[in-house]
């Protein structure tokens, strides 16, 4: 045989007594799993096509379907599990690089879950956010550390351009092309309603979304897709993408099948051609080169917009951040190794980079030690899953957090990890018109607003429990964190004490 048979990862279980052969499952599945057999008058399922997106399960009117993990396994082996064996078979068949979507799924430590938040009791009483002011508003950008006056004695305005946020949460970079028009519409509308920002990613800004410019961060990546003067001016801030948590050290690739007419126009590349962004910016090989691009972007926008530099969380992130802070950038964004992606080589996604918690703690401490912490703000991302993660990130030193996967889950994503195929059954990571229309922007943006609003309430509750009434008072306040289930070295890197340890 030319190809090795690989057992399907999932099985479709159909209750024949409940199934009415309405064929809704067939119409809803873009992967072609379900089919009607005219001879038997029954529905059949091709398990090899199933990605466990649960679209058919959700839409089955009689609840006749469920998806289970296949019980057909190889001989038990702790070293060679089924996934590893199947990946060898796939590469032996194709000779190609394995591709994956979303974030790293491996069972590695999640430090957010090993950090606990301290609470106030008597001498430093807690605060009731329902009755007392609780400030979640903040500004991102360089902070003035000195006061100068003019000849008349008036204070000079030395404050660099700032990004005001009503809540310390932004929607992270997801390009038009990797996600759909409707998904971008949801993110843009929600950002406007919430008083925060969404990031275009490296795919340019669709002409319909310039009306949301006050809540838009545009990205300049190595491919320079969609970058022109109007693009830079049609935003609240500009982000230079140097790296991404899901694939540190490599570039990007959007397949030609996703380059539709609209995507082509937005990215300014021919329709149907692969959009390949190289690993490095070919004009940046040093901090001095980065500084030149930062200054060029500021010059192009009359120094009215803050510039963000985004890097992946890697072992020397602290040193890199120190250089970026001196490059003239206003904000540093750090993306951890569990960050999501529309497509990345599996080996890169699952084995390269470090946890965002460790990178954040080291970057914040390095900048403080060098006396330049106020020169930049810090945004972190890479599997921010809840309001508790946001609170812990800010206590470790972040100013705000990017959320990506959580935002897509709010839109209906079922984390089936097939974004790179373009067959997203929920209308998010696809450009096929019949699938895109499944995501209603009117419903989607409201769900995003609900999610962030709920997180805001929870953040206020947690701050109140700590006896803290502002995000600013929480930033870098590691005394409010305690660790459990960690080694002494891990606690040292995070800069927190063990649970139960006195001050």
Features:
about 500 residues, Alpha-Beta Plaits, about 15% strand, alpha/beta, globular
Detailed description of the structure:
It is a single chain. This protein is α/β, with parallel strands linked by helices. The protein has 2 domains: 10-96, Alpha-Beta Plaits (2-Layer Sandwich); 114-144 and 166-472, Aldolase class I (TIM Barrel, Alpha-Beta Barrel), CATH 3.20.20.70. The protein has 16 helices and 21 strands. The protein has an 8-stranded parallel beta sheet. Helix 11 (387-396) links the parallel strand 18 and strand 19. Helix 4 (181-194) packs across helix 14 (441-466) and helix 8 crosses helix 10. It is globular and about 90 Å long. The termini are far apart. The model has no long low-confidence stretch (mean pLDDT 93).
CATH topology of the largest domain: TIM Barrel
Strand residue content? 15-25%
Radius of gyration: 24 Å
Total beta strands: 21
Order of strands across the main sheet: 9-19-18-16-15-12-11-10
**What is the terminal-to-terminal distance?**
67 Å
Main beta-sheet annotation: 8 strands, parallel
Chain-averaged pLDDT: 93
State the helical fraction: 25-40%
What's the shape? globular
Total domains: 2
The low-confidence runs, each spanning 5 or more residues with pLDDT under 50, are none
CATH superfamily of the largest domain: Aldolase class I
Given helix and strand content, the structural type is alpha/beta
Q: In CATH terms, what is the architecture of the largest domain?
A: Alpha-Beta Barrel
Q: Figure out the total of helices.
A: 16
């Amino acid at each position: 045989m030319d190809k090795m048979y690989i057992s399907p990862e999932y099985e479709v279980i159909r209750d024949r007594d409940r199934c009415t052969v309405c064929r809704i499952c067939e119409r809803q599945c873009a992967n072609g799993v379900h089919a009607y057999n005219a001879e038997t008058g029954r529905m059949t399922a091709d398990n090899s096509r199933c990605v466990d997106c649960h679209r058919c399960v959700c839409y089955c009117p009689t609840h006749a379907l469920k998806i289970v993990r296949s019980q057909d396994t190889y001989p038990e082996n702790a070293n060679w599990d089924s996934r590893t064996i199947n990946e060898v078979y796939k590469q032996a068949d194709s000779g190609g690089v394995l591709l994956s979507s979303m974030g790293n799924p491996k069972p590695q430590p999640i430090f957010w879950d090993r950090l606990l938040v301290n609470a106030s009791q008597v001498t430093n009483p807690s605060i009731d956010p329902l009755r007392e002011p609780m400030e979640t508003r903040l500004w991102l950008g360089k902070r003035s550390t000195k006061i100068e006056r003019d000849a008349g004695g008036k204070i000079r305005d030395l404050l660099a351009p700032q990004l005001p946020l009503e809540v310390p949460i932004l929607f992270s970079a997801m390009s038009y092309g990797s996600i759909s028009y409707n998904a971008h519409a949801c993110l843009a509308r929600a950002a406007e309603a919430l008083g925060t920002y969404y990031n275009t990613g490296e795919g340019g800004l669709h002409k319909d979304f310039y009306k949301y410019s006050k809540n838009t961060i545009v990205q300049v990546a190595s491919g320079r897709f969609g970058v022109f003067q109007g693009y830079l001016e049609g935003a609240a801030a500009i982000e230079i993408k140097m790296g991404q948590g899901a694939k540190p050290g490599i570039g990007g690739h959007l397949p030609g099948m996703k380059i539709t007419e609209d995507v082509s126009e937005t990215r300014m590349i021919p329709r149907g051609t692969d959009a390949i962004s190289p690993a490095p910016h070919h004009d940046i090989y040093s901090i001095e080169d980065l500084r030149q691009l930062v200054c060029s972007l500021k010059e192009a926008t009359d120094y009215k917009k803050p510039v963000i530099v985004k890097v992946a969380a890697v072992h020397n992130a602290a040193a890199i951040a120190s250089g970026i802070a001196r490059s003239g950038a206003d904000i540093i964004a750090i993306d951890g190794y569990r960050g999501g992606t529309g497509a990345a080589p599996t080996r890169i996604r699952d084995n390269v980079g470090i946890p965002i918690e460790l990178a954040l703690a080291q970057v914040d401490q390095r900048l403080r030690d060098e006396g330049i912490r106020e020169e930049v703000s810090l945004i972190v991302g890479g599997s921010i899953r809840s309001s508790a993660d946001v609170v812990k990130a800010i206590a470790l030193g972040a100013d705000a957090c990017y959320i990506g996967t959580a935002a897509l889950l709010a839109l209906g994503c079922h984390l089936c990890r097939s974004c790179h195929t373009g067959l997203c059954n929920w209308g998010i990571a696809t450009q096929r018109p019949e699938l895109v229309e499944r995501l209603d922007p009117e419903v989607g943006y409201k769900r995003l607003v609900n999610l962030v609003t709920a997180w805001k309430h929870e953040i206020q509750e947690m701050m109140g429990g700590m006896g803290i009434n502002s995000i600013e008072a929480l930033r870098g306040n590691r005394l409010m964190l305690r660790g459990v289930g960690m080694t002494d070295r891990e606690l040292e890197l995070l800069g927190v004490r063990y649970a139960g340890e006195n001050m």
